[in-house]
Write a structure and sequence with these properties.
Blueprint (H helix, E strand, L loop, with lengths): L3 E5 L2 E5 L20 H5 L25 H11 L6 H10 L8 H11 L2 H6 L2 H5 L5 H24 L7 H12 L6 E7 L5 E9 L9 H10 L4 E7 L9 H15 L4 E8 L4 E3 L7
Length: about 280
């Protein structure tokens, strides 16, 4: 490339013969401009994401172009895009210029899947030097939007008749949590969702649950039925003895006020269990 000057968002940028205004190779936007915004991000070096045939992507190259990706999405539909391409486009919102494909592939390599990237904790994502706060915010925005769409569908009909969608929602919300979280689905007389609330957060293997608080909140919301939910960060959704004891305590307390506990769902990583289906309540 012949040395010269290039307009970048209204400012004039001097670029060397390498064609890289930031002095950093490897990033290019649709117009062929290298460096700029992405070059200013402290991206992790390639060795941080060592090639491994057991990962979803053994290599994170080559680079692509934003315009081509947008045309592919609009004209061929989202079904034509691979998971890493969807994530690549999500990152467009965080990084105004540059090739986000290597970062998208690296994130899926690290977390194992697109779903796991979206469900990862916001603080963990923001702590990745390749993402920072802008990248983490873009990813969590998509995750939050997806959860609200599923929750809206679940809320529109009796939950017990759409158990598959409920499990999909709970898995998306909890499967990647690294600490235990106890939440309650509060239902109306037709078993429609009134509220889904996190009542307690705990450690990696314990969450304190107080039956009186569960029942008190149910009365405040005029709920007539409940579904208890919590996750096992270990990934194994097998209920513990403490889980069974706690479920009975909440069920007994709720029954005194004619509030029914339909089930207690435990979410693991890629699997789940229902205490009712297991005959434990």
């Amino acid at each position: 490339m012949i040395p010269g000057r290039l307009q970048d968002g209204g400012r004039v940028v001097e670029y060397p013969e390498t064609g890289d205004p930031g002095g950093r190779p490897g990033f290019a936007d649709a117009a062929g401009f290298r460096g700029s915004a992405l070059a200013d991000r402290p991206f992790a070096p390639p060795e941080a994401y060592a090639e491994d045939a057991t990962r979803p992507f053994a290599s994170t190259g080559p680079h692509g172009h934003r315009q081509r990706m947008r045309e592919k999405l609009v004209h061929r539909g989202a079904e034509a895009l691979a998971d890493y391409e969807l994530l690549e486009m999500v990152l467009f919102a965080a990084f105004r210029m540059g090739d986000t494909k290597p970062l998208a592939k690296s994130l899926i390599n690290q977390h194992g899947s697109l779903a796991a990237v979206l469900a990862a904790r916001a603080d963990h994502l923001a702590g990745d030097p390749a993402l920072g706060l802008p990248g983490a915010a873009a990813i969590k925005l998509v995750h939050a939007t997806a959860l609200r769409m599923i929750r809206a569908e679940v809320s529109a009909m009796p939950i017990l008749s759409r158990w598959d969608r409920l499990i999909e929602y709970l898995t998306a919300a909890l499967a990647e949590e690294r600490t235990e979280q106890f939440r309650v689905l509060f239902l109306d007389p037709r078993n429609r969702l009134i509220a889904d609330e996190v009542l307690h957060r705990g450690t990696v293997n314990h969450t304190p649950v107080y039956p009186r608080e569960v029942v008190k909140r149910a009365l405040e919301l005029h709920a007539t039925a409940l579904i208890l939910v919590h996750n096992h960060p270990s990934g194994d959704p097998t209920p513990s003895e403490a889980d069974v004891v706690m479920t009975k305590a909440v069920k007994d307390a709720a029954a005194l006020l004619e509030i029914r506990v339909h089930d207690h769902v435990i979410v693991g990583r890629g699997d789940w269990n229902s205490l009712r289906q297991l005959g434990l309540m």
